[in-house]
Predict the structure of Thymidylate synthase.
Amino acid sequence: MTSVNIETKSKITKTDDCVETVVDEELVLMNIVSGVFYSLKDTGRRAWELLEGEQTFGALVDAMCSEYDVAEQTCRTELAKLIGDLEERSLVQVG
């Protein structure tokens, strides 16, 4: 995963180039332009679900911290890696 620094107020949105489906307990994403597949399970899947509409990075961190027993800094670091990876694959936009 790519490590990136995302500001608390940065807005994160899913791109229109992404389709998703659930296979067993796994969320499978596909970039329809590149044809690249990406899968998310457990907390990664939950983070994706929380990105409905437009979400700020800070709100995403707050939501994940309230649902999981995780330190805020650890949550920020891991979510930044995930969002960076999704952005690299053109599945989300950060702005």
Q: What stands out?
A: The domain at 11-94 is CATH 1.10.10 (Arc Repressor Mutant, subunit A).
